[in-house]
Predict the 3D structure of the following.
Amino acid sequence: MLPRIESQSAIRYRYKQNHIDGPDITLSKNGVVMVAIECKATKLTFEAQFSDNPEIEAEGKLLELSKGVLQLWKFFARVRSGVIYHYTCAIECMGVVLALDRWVMLPDALLGSVFQKAHELADQEGIGRSDRSPVIISTAQELEGLLSWADEDEEDVFATLQAATEARYFGWMLPQI
């Protein structure tokens, strides 16, 4: 499909005497990580989808997505600081949180709260702003569609994912970009 993109499943590393799993998948070009992917089996409940207060109905689920974003930022910080020496990240490296539902269909304010909470958690963890690479939330189906649509041009994949992090595309599904 995309012969110049190397994919790798999670590696386990040590950090402060703990065993930590890296991102579920990394996509690299010439040995340099371009995209880190964290999978979350987080499904938006029926009640939350049609509630007058979806932020209350989906609070725990939204927190899981925030933690997924945080996990990616921790990875980027640890790679850049040399704690994880197995990887090198590109300057334009970005993250993707894969979920089971199209969370991007939530109101912008609610989706924005995922990132707001992730920033709060990152502040508590001492993760600097420079290590908070752009992250999008997508579904596996959307990412698969992008990868198959791009055929053999990985630059299209990376360009589309980068565009998805721009404010003008906030809340858009990948096929629409």
Observations:
- The radius of gyration is 16 Å.
- Residues 59-80 form the longest helix (22 residues).
- Strands lie at 6-9, 12-15, 18-21, 25-29, 32-39, 89-99, 135-139.
